Amino acid sequence: MSHLLSAVRQLAGFFFSPDGEMKRAWWMMSKQRVVLRVRQGVELLRALIRKILFLREDEYLRAYVARLEEHNRNLKEHNRNLEEHNRLLTIAATERARNLEEHNRLLTIAATERARELQDREAELTQALAVMSQRVERLSQHNQWLMENAMEAVSELQGLDPETTMQSRVVREIDSKIQGLMTQQQVKEVETRICAPSHQSYASSPNSIGSVLGTELLGGSDRQSQYLPREKHVLMVTSVLARGGCERQMLATADGLIHRGYQIEIFCFGAPPPEGSFIEEFSRLGITCRHAFEAVDSMARVNDGRDVQSLQQLVQLVDHLDVLAIGRALIRAIKDFRPEIVHCFSDFANVVGGFIATDLCVPRVVLMQVNVPAFRDVNGPEPYACRHAYRLLAAKSNVVMLNNSLAGVIAYAKWLDVPNDKIKVLYNGYLSNGIHIRQRSETEACRRELGLVGDMQVVGAVIRFAAEKDPILWLETAAAIAVARPNTHFLLAGYGELAEQVRDGIQSLGLAERFVLAGQTRDVGLIYGTLDVFLMTSRFEGVPNVLIEAQAAGIPVVTPNVGGTRETLLDGTTGIVVGNRRPLSLASAVLQILDDSSWRERTAIEGPAFVSKRFGYQRMIDETIAAYDLRI
Description:
Helices cover 57% and strands 11% of the residues. The chain is of the alpha/beta class and 632 residues long. The strands form two sheets. Strands 3-2-1-4-5-6-7 form a seven-stranded parallel sheet, with helices on both faces.
């Protein structure tokens, strides 16, 4: 480049030198030198031109390469986007397939449960028909025995031939009515008569079974002067002293009455169950518990049996118990203790204890119903006998009927066809010193004691493994929760005839690694202290004590809307009432609570306050004593 510039300068100096210098320089420069320099200059110019052109081509090339690199980058980004899109599509498809599979599984569970329920119902109906047939035969034999004894009694009293007397015709009429009642042809007529007449017309109809038997069943004004009750003595009557909600309320009531100066004694029809009872707790209060099976020797001292004639129509209520023997033992207990009040708990104890107590002219007879009517959906002689007995007792002025829920009051009043005000509401009472409530800070220690370690949520219940509590539905609900919440564990504390089915169900649902069966426990506070949610799945209930206790412990509860459960909680505040008993619906309510930590915080405050207000212990004792008042 420098050579080219030098040549150019020289040429310019040659041609444009002042004062003739150009001419002199021309002659001085040889021809060859000029030509060489010109050639060199031309070559240099050509080289410069080529270099300039190459530089422009290089710029174009670099720009093109840059565009290619940008295009490659765009292609790579597009490929990444496609890969991410494909990955998301794969995840979505997998999740959809999983959801469909879970939906199909839950549908299968629901269909299986429905089929099982139908099979159970069919089996129950078949068994009921068989039992009815057996009872018809037994009642026919029993009625024959009654007729023969009545005819002999009439013959002895009148000294006349029983076939020719008016009394014998009355006896035959009674027998024909009872016999006709038991025939299959008239079962529907009996059911129609149950539903059709009003309470007043049923009790007063001169042709009804109640009018024929009622005067003998509940008569005896001459006995009133013979019975001398002891003031503030209460005999509590129940079927069996298991560790259930009814018995827990009996214990709480007895404890409160003792502190108010009452003397209490317990009479139960059957032996304590092997799973446990409250006899030890009653004993600590100084209360004697008498049992019909222990009173065999004393039965011989009871009179010839006229006092238990009122129970003849109740012998078909149970197959495994001798109702007449129970009645004789109860008569002896009443005559020995001479209570001013006989307080019965549950249907069977109510009708048997009510008949005996009213026959003996006990001043006050209290019939405590702790559920909805047990026979409301059952056909056959059992509901007829129980309903008829209740209605005869409802007509007595010294009988008071109580129920622990408003739903129960309405259901019983409808079933018995009596006015709603004939049955009073007496809500359960929560005895706080009966349960050791744990604080929230003790949750980890409670779980560790039950073998639950790690970061988890726990759903559980205190439950009796019986058909009416439906533990199989509980397991199916747990399975639905487990799918949605892998860190959720489950805890059941209880006992019952379905315990083996519960264990098998846990295995079949694949929940064995996430389930704890605590068995029967006296420390229910330990169970409540472990839970995040208390789940109930019962088919029917009165006012469940476990829901009350869970809320008192600050645990949110979930329950189907059965019986009086809606009255047991603040729906939307301390728990959720589900409108059906389907596993997915119950699971959805549980998950709603598990997903929101404010539920636990809110229930810790609102739960104990609600329990104290509605299920106050002293309030229950006050209302119980008010029911004992002989002036009402």
